[in-house]
Amino acid sequence: MPRGSLRLLWLCVLLLLLPLPPPPPLAGALGHRGSAAPRETAEEPGRAGQAFRDLREGLRAAGALSRRYWALFSCRVWPETCEQDRTAPAGPLGWSLPLLGQQYLDILITWYCSFQDCCDSGDCRISNNFTGLQADLSVRLHGQHLARELVLATVRGYLELPQPDKALALSFHGWSGTGKNFVARMLAENLYRDGLRSDCVRVFITMLHFPHPKYVDLYKEQLADQVRETQARCHQTLFIFDEAEKLHPELLEALGQHLEHQAPGSPGAESPRTIFLFLSNLGGNSINAAVLGLLKAGWSREAITMEHVEPHLRAEILVSTDSGFGHSRLVKENLIDLFVPFLPLESRHVRLCARDAFLSQALPYTEAALDEIARMMVYVPKEGPLFSSQGCKSVAQRMNYVLP
Known about the structure:
- By secondary structure, the chain is α/β, with parallel strands linked by helices.
- The chain has helices spanning 3-17, 38-42, 44-77, 83-87, 99-113, 130-139, 145-159, 180-191, 206-209, 216-233, 249-259, 284-296, 306-319, 329-332, 347-360, 367-376, 395-398, and strands at residues 168-173, 201-205, 236-242, 273-280, 338-341, 379-380, 387-388.
- 50% of the residues lie in helices and 8% in strands.
- The protein has a five-stranded parallel beta sheet with strand order 2-3-4-1-5, with helices on both faces. A two-stranded antiparallel ribbon has the order 6-7.
- α12 (284-296) runs antiparallel to α13 and α15 crosses α16 (367-376).
- The longest helix has 34 residues, at 44-77.
């Protein structure tokens, strides 16, 4: 027998063993039979019938109370299924749960939840910790004020919709090391209990999962199956596509059906909440050029808005001949809800990344060590302001050169 079935069997047995109130006394059950008078002996058949009826009523009441135990247990463990239980009457005899029975029930629920997912939200795998996400984006993400504001507001707004009519599609663009994967991981860690290891999260790296163009038909089938299976397991799912600019055009077209708007009442209208993240270096050069021009013109970095960057980003995506991403229906049919630009990082941001790397490993550091790591990076262009060509990507490796 499978382990899950065996545990459920033990659960049913334990529920049956929960203490019940004493049954009502049976007529004729009190006193001593030896002292019965002859007249009482003549009434035995009538008393036996009454005793049987009393026993039957007692068993019915005991059964009702056992069902009540089960209703309370299932309501505590699976709250989404207990609407009827909340309005159901307590039982035919108005019995309440004995105090000892309530204590046993609490112990039983604790035991069950030690090996099964059960919590107030109905699915403990999903946490949707927006407070934690806001804190992570504010404290751990450096130099990306646009991404910080856009990602939090868009994701929170989508997940709080009563019934979304499409999946949410976000496309992260920028140079390597600017924080695209970092933000994707923050989303997974704050929306799901197990982060990237969650059953509700799938990560695809183009050159790892879809490396050979000749197998694109097989990849399309596998991808469709994995999306469908993940959505069947979870009512809120997250799919991350790294190196999205390298996805085969046919894979991009296949993804389009998952991002389409669903008409109310259509078969897909009841589909789970789904977020698609596309991470790409495409558009990074245009973002950097726009930021460089604004900084040279005297703009503050924090004053840069989407209106300054997005047109340049979209233009590069559309005209790129090195990628089919901009020519796919995802872009042409506006199935991407938001293009998020990740700005190039400066030396001061690299220092903050280095500081965080030391703190994450509980290692001591000095300001001189942070300066030394920042100086090790390669910066472009030759004339200022200067941007780290790898962002913060290789900061952790360079820590080894400054550790005592």
